[in-house]
Amino acid sequence: MNIKGHNEGMEKKKRASFRFSAEPGTLVQIQKIPSTTGPLGLYGLALDEAYRGCSFVITGKKPLWKEGETLKIKVGKLAPLVGEIRWIKKVERNIWTIGVKYLE
Q: Which of 22, 24, 63, 91 is the most exposed place for a label (fewest CB within 10 A)?
């Protein structure tokens, strides 16, 4: 039996901090570093948050970033932080999820 948060008989990866679902509609503002585009101008929707990072969903034909790139990210009402893209997953056509580890 597999209940959210419980994986019986499956190896679990340990996280450094607790993750929780973002409030519905929480916006993520993103800017590549270094950037000449000015203020945080690209938007996504937060999926989950943690002390050391977050994940969000964006739309587009392909992500504008690559794993390992640095960006400035503002999640909801939090102050902007510098983060590193840890993973990018294609959900379906033109929908992507991105995981970010905060560097500050």
A: 24
Mean pLDDT across the chain: 79
Q: Would you call the peptide bond into 24 cis, given omega within 30 degrees of 0 as the criterion?
A: no
**Structure tokens that stand for 28 in this block:** 């993520």
Residue found under tokens 């999640």: 75
Q: What is the 3-state secondary structure (H, E, C) of 61-73?
A: CCCCCCCCCEEEE
Give the pLDDT score at 20.
55
3-state secondary structure at position 15: coil
For the chain, the 3-state helix, strand and coil shares in percent, each to the nearest 5, are 0, 55, 45
Q: How distant is the alpha carbon of residue 5 from its chain centre?
A: 20
